[in-house]
Specification:
This protein is an all-alpha fold and about 260 residues long. It is about 75% helix and about 0% strand. The N and C termini lie far apart (about 45 Å).
């Protein structure tokens, strides 16, 4: 994901000192090793994480367990382990608690437990340790969950944070454009999808939504053009398949 651009000072200033790098502990190294193993082979990752947990891996082993379950798409178990990891990190004032809570929120959302997802993502923000890209991603996740709960006004508010924190994220603009269309705010939908196109014009999902917005506005020619572009860009992607369906409906309606 692209990072947001930052305004540059016009006056001459001394460059900031390099960040102080925190020394990697043996536990940190073990976590990296465990996560790598889970990414390569989730089944073996589960075994490694459980073994580490028995040996006293604590909340970091729990995080690796959650990651392995997520790689296996066992989202409910992943969420439970990420929660335990987050609680453990909080108890030791480990700043990674915010990341672990955000992982729990994503896993809960994937499992269909939207209320829990909102709680966990709220806990991530409550740590007050996130900024920039990571904070923007949490607001984006809250917006997605809010849409799933039909809480459109809340989702709209969250997208405003996303655009402020990560203006270079095309997904944020795409999803806010889709929400604006659903809410009947076609002016905002057109504006937001235009930003998405600037950032990722080769994404078939963006072309599909641009077509949807044009069609909603009564601009059938632009809708057709964008849907054809989605098919061209995506070939067998889910967005291309939806666009093909819409184009087929257009042909049918013309023939009738």
């Amino acid at each position: 994901m692209l990072r947001p651009s930052e305004a540059k000072r016009q006056e001459s200033v001394n460059p900031p000192p390099p960040p102080v790098m925190k020394a990697k502990t043996p536990m940190d190294a073990r976590l990296e090793q465990c996560l790598d193993q889970a990414a390569d082979d989730p089944g073996k990752g589960l075994l490694a994480a459980n073994k580490w947990q028995i040996e006293g891996g604590g909340y970091l082993a729990r995080n690796c367990l959650g990651f392995a379950y997520a790689e296996l798409s066992d989202w409910a178990k992943a969420a439970a382990e990420f929660v335990r990891a987050a609680e453990g990190a909080e108890s030791t004032s480990d700043e990674r608690a915010a990341i672990f809570w955000s992982q729990a929120g994503n896993a809960a959302f994937a499992s269909g437990d939207n209320p829990a997802a909102l709680t966990y993502l709220g806990n991530a923000l409550a740590q007050n340790s996130l900024d920039g890209l990571l904070k923007g991603e949490v607001h984006l996740d809250i917006a997605r969950v809010s849409v799933a709960l039909n809480q459109y006004d809340e989702a709209k508010k969250q997208f405003a944070f996303v655009h402020q924190l990560v203006p270079q994220d095309p997904l944020g603009w795409l999803l806010s454009a889709t929400l604006a269309r659903r809410m009947g705010d076609l002016a905002s939908a057109k504006s937001d999808i235009a930003e998405a196109v600037k950032l990722a014009g080769s994404d078939p999902a963006i072309a599909l939504e641009a077509g949807n917005i044009a069609y909603e506005a009564g601009d059938v020619l632009n809708a057709k053009s964008n849907w054809e572009q989605a098919v061209k860009l995506g070939t067998d992607s889910p967005s291309a398949k939806v666009a093909k369906g819409y184009l087929s409906q257009l042909v049918t309606s013309v023939e009738e």
